[in-house]
Design goal:
Layout: E1 3-9, H1 14-32, E2 41-46, E3 62-69, H2 74-88, E4 98-105, E5 111-112, E6 116-117
Parallel strand pairs: 1-2, 3-4
Antiparallel strand pairs: 1-3, 5-6
Helix pairs in contact: 1-2
Length: about 130
């Protein structure tokens, strides 16, 4: 049940936003093996004056922050980064303008499914990939 926040300057048309959301989700399905129906994503856009980036970053600099159940391997995270780069580049986000941060959140720190800790329920999928 990753929670995804995609932050960028305002530049995307509606169809591009949908494609970006689809690309990020497909990357998570491929690399983290999450269920295909498990989508919790949002795009946050800023006016250019409200989104500062390091020198050398382009107009489409994008930060993808993913809060995920702890337990994914370094290999799965590397695969995720590569999936994201390969899927987002054709949509206008150059590889060097993409920053990805994965927060590993312990299962006991997720309250879900009626107020239960994620460590107390059967999630229905494997986390240790």
């Amino acid at each position: 049940m990753p929670l995804v926040r995609i932050e960028t300057r305002r530049w995307m048309a509606g169809d591009t936003k949908l494609s970006v959301l689809d690309a990020v989700h497909a990357s998570l399905v491929a690399a983290f093996k999450i269920p295909a129906h498990d989508r919790n994503q949002r795009i946050v856009e800023y006016e250019p004056a409200d989104f500062e980036a390091s020198a050398g970053k382009g107009e489409h600099f994008t930060i993808v922050t993913i809060d995920a159940f702890a337990g994914r391997s370094v290999e799965a995270k590397r695969a995720l980064y590569q999936e994201l780069v390969s899927r987002l580049a054709p949509l206008g986000i150059p590889p060097n303008d993409l920053l990805v941060v994965v927060h590993d959140v312990p299962l006991e720190s997720w309250g879900t499914r009626g107020g239960k800790a994620a460590c107390d329920i059967d999630l229905g999928f494997q986390i240790k990939v």
